[in-house]
Amino acid sequence: MPRHHKKTGSKYIIQVGDAGLKFNKIEGSKIKGRIVYMLIGFILFVIGVVPMINKAFKSDIVCVQTDGLITIPWNEGWSIAISITPGIPIHLQGNNGATYDIFSDTKGLLLKKNGNIKSMKGSILGLKRGDMFYYNPVYDNQILDISKVGTTWLKIIQKNEEYTTGIVLVKVAPIKDKNDDGKEIMQFKAEIVTSLSFPKQKGKYQKVSNEFLEDIEAKLRK
Predict the structure, then answer these.
(1) Handedness of CA 32, 37, 40, 43 (dihedral sign)
(2) What's the CA angle centered on 94, arms 90 and 98, to 5 degrees?
(3) Of the candidates 203, 205, 192, the residue with the CA atom closest to the CA atom of residue 65
(4) Predicted TM-score of the model (pTM)
(5) Given 31, 67, 177, 180, which is the most exposed site by the fewest CB atoms within 10 A?
């Protein structure tokens, strides 16, 4: 916001108007009126401008970085040829009352039930703390040439009492490596790009919208 300075006496007052902030010399007889004008202008500024800033940057939502929502028990590079797990394992942490919804933009989500692997395609809903799921980049994608598999994003949403209380974004990218025989193999490694919690404020859950989550995802996936 531009500022206009007038080099006058030692007493100044700030006025808030359409042209920005203006500094005007205070006349002794008008000091009370000017102070009232200043206070009214400042209040209008706070009421009108600050919410616009909050809306643009979503700063009304309190976010806290956390490493307590998920863990990746083994992440040295997963390969369909040599790995003993059905995919990259992801273990859900968080709190006992939370549920978790998981989404993949290229399918490949797996659950192990009663000793059997079950494909969940691109989403798994309603998991709880202590549950584990897997991501396998080729299981559902019918890709014969594994070298053509690209990067995948996983989104994990934590909820408490139907309120969104956390989000984790995981990037799974292909990496080239060589086995003991010197033959080139394709492996996949997961990276936790962000892990955020949305804690209660004044004892109440925050109302985190889908638009806010999409905004976070869009900015981090650039």
Answers:
(1) negative
(2) 105
(3) 192
(4) 0.70
(5) 180
